[in-house]
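Hello,

Our lab assistant flagged a job as stuck in the queue for most of the afternoon. It eventually completed. Since we weren't sure the result was trustworthy after the delay, we are filing this so someone can double-check. Below is the sequence as submitted and the structure that was eventually returned. Let us know if re-running is recommended.
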Amino acid sequence: MELLNVPVPRGSWVQVYDGTNNATLSIAGTPEPCIAQICQSTSEPAPGLMGFTLSSASDVEGIYVATSGAPVYVKALTTGVVIIINA
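-- returned structure --
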């Protein structure tokens, strides 16, 4: 098991996990709430793609479970976003 903290700059898609294994991802950071979009895809998402919402203000929207086989990308919508990955 590996625990990673990946800062994500606001405004563009960033690969945060390579998809080697199943993983649980959550969002954190300051200022609160931190909001981002997440997408698991074999290629980098287009800039205008709307991904699933990740929000530090919600227990339901604050966690994403990724399956192995494809990378995970995150686009931060607020500043200060950090993705916590447990893989």
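-- support follow-up --
The delay was a queue issue, not a problem with the job. The result is valid. The mean pLDDT is 96. The radius of gyration is 12 Å.
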